[in-house]
Specification:
The chain is of the alpha+beta class and 306 residues long. Among the domains are: 72-139 and 159-167, no CATH class; 170-188 and 232-306, no CATH class; 196-230, no CATH class. 25% of the residues lie in helices and 33% in strands. The protein has helices at 19-38, 41-63, 213-217, 247-264, 283-294, and strands spanning 5-7, 14-17, 69-72, 78-79, 83-91, 98-105, 112-116, 121-129, 134-137, 141-145, 152-158, 163-167, 189-201, 223-230, 235-238, 268-272, 275-280. It has a 5-stranded antiparallel sheet with strand order 2-11-10-6-7. The longest helix has 23 residues, at 41-63. It is rod-shaped.
Length: 306
Amino acid sequence: MAEHGTTLSHRKIYILPTKQGYAFVLLLLFMLFGSINYNNNLAYLLTFMLVSLSLLSIIYVYRNLYALEITGGKCAPVFAGEQARFVLTLYNPKPLDRFEVMFTPKQRPVSNIIHIQGFQTLTMTLPVQTHQRGHLTLPALKITSSYPLGLFGAWTWISLDIDCLVYPRPSTEAPPLPTHQAEGKGMATQPGCDDFLGFRKATPSDPPRHLDWKSFAKGQPLMAKQFGQQLNPHLWFDWSQMDDVNPEDKLAKITYWVLEAERQQVSYGLQLPQMKIQTGHGSYHKHQCLKALALFNVHRTGDSRE
């Protein structure tokens, strides 16, 4: 059963000879047969000394993993296609140093090799490649060590209950932000000098360059030009208004729009089947929208992945 942390006890650690260990055992057998054949006491001494040394290495390789405490930490959300970086905390409760301890995620050939001093707490990061949105659980970890001689290897498997939220990958072909507005919201304006909005009755405080002197010369009332700039509307990303057939393409486009709206500091809302997130903006609002997109179940909408 997966758990947030574990301690390597004697019930979890297994020891077997390595390839070098099997070759060393074969060499010891040849040395033993030679010692018996020639009845050479020095050869007997060397053979049994090497046997004792190899047996002693079993104790050291076991002690290199025994009582090591591993705890899972948090993993920051990433987008599909990026590497999720799982954080593990390692604690050595013994005064003896641990050398060449290797952590290898399942189906990943690259290992993290660490050295932990006595009574030391160490933080380690395991990168795991992501491929699709949703929750990515840390794969089972194989912990191995062949220290000190490499003749025997101690190993164990652990499963930690930590996962990473994987957002949908933003579309690279998404159109610009949609122009439709949130429910009940209109296009607002604010004073400025960017766009010409029309004429209004002149006042004494209007600068002369804003007055419509041509119309005034024709005998019309003196009018002033009015300028302003339109504020960005409150956008509404509505699943039902999108024409894409593939639901994953819809999610990719909405993800791009969310990121673009945040970049432009535009308020936006999200409308998914059976879920609605009101308009807003900011890091928390962005996370809530991207989380909803990451965990969205397209099969419950009647759509199917193609």
